[in-house]
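Dear support,

I submitted the protein below through the web form. The confirmation email said the job was done, but the results page showed an empty box. After a refresh the structure appeared. I'm attaching both so you can tell me whether what I see now is the final result or a partial one.
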Amino acid sequence: MPHALLVLAIVAAVGDVGAWPQFRGARSDADVGGGTAPLRWSDDENVVWKKSLPGLGWSSPIVAGGRVYVTTAAPVGEGLSLRALALDAESGSVAWDTEIRAVAAAPAIHFKNSHASPTPILRDGALFVHFGTLGTARLAAHDGTLQWLCTELEYPPVHGSGGSPVLSDGILVIVCDGGVGPFVAALDAESGKIAWKTPRSVKADISHSFVTPLATVVEGRTQVLAPGPDHCAAYDLATGAEIWRVRARGWSVVPQPLVHAGLAIYNHDYDHPELMAVRLGGAGDVTESHVAWRRQRGAPSTPTPLLVGEEIYTVSDNGVASCFDARTGAEHWMRRIGGNYSASPVHAEGRVLFLSEQGAAVWVRAAKEFEIVAKNEVSGKTLATPAFDGRAMYLRTDEHLLRIEEPPR
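What the results page shows now:
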């Protein structure tokens, strides 16, 4: 399928592209599109409202239909209350607050993780929320009524859960790479029943990861790209059958893959991050036949790479930002911008936003030459990727959700 048609297929599968209804926006590309984005902000500059959130969650906010949705895990005695909230986008007031499930004990997590790290999905009036092995649920977006809860995807998580689901053609795909027996599963979006469950085909010494998959169309067939322990595999959306795989030593994978010019581009390792580009259209083990390029310099461990035109922008966990050619992996620039990074970069109006874990944000020109456009900072930790709608940015910290918006220029 030509690249332009592939993009149209992805957009059609997602639906409305005017809002920010899932991780990294409607097209999973972290591009604000025709909208605008604030250039400058601080704790008291261009903050429309600031709302305290209960508990802790590193799920990214999503926005659509005049509401902002988040998940959180609030302590209750020795246990946790897993919750979903809807806030009015104009005022920040809580429209509804629903407990998905109360758990007496939760798995241990990494100090940078939370028990509510996967980002929700909003589609056709339904809100899908995911808490890893603790459960996945569907709610009515207008009032928070719980429509179904699935707790059948059991696996032993390591450091907690982090990857978000992907929804395509009525199927919710979830990567379940735990300490043993890693697998990829799909739930029927209407019923919450397991549609398929496919064990990982490559046995790895360290089998856990935290990846968000990506659904894309290749030669008229929807594939789900899911990097994992010691390999990346593509699965048939309808059946769960593995279509192709590439072997590469690695574990604890986090970033979501991206697709450009017939290439699947993804990271395969946390400790020694390396981006790989694989030509789509293969079958079986394509390690020796379909790898187009590999790049270690500038590869991120956690933030998902950003595609703008023909260039990819990345930021490593330790604050090295890079720009390179998406087709070849050739470097345009690499600069240290400071801080540590978990949030994924976002593109708006010819600028790339890098948001550090310490609340500092850097706008960089989306160009082959490095140029800082603006720097901003807010109080608190910021590990979640911001959401955008209209002129507003919705920024989550460890304690608050902020709506940031500049006056019209």
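Response: this is the final, complete result; the empty box was a page-load delay. The CA atoms of residues 308 and 347 lie 7 Å apart.
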